[in-house]
Prior knowledge:
By secondary structure, this protein is mainly alpha-helical. The chain has helices spanning 6-22, 30-43, and strands at 63-65, 72-74. It has a two-stranded antiparallel ribbon with strand order 1-2.
Amino acid sequence: MTVIPPAAIAVIAAALDDYRLTTPSHQQTPHGAAERAAEYLTTSGWGLHVPRGGEPQPPSRDRAACPACCVRHLITLAGRIRRHGPHGHPCPGSGTPAP
């Protein structure tokens, strides 16, 4: 796994904070937050790398039902249920092994 530089994490965090503060909560979407983070990264001088052809792609994973909230969530490459829940308060089922 590639280590993400702390400076890039700081730019992403700033972008997400800005998005949360400037976009009404009923209009916020994961896509909008991702666009804001990408915009901040590129304008801060970071490049976005999109693998082409020869590089192996991670296998697509199905969604599994969380044992705590019963909502279906993506499975990580490690075979665990993706972290989910309100910001700062993850669901207790986050990170559990996928069935």
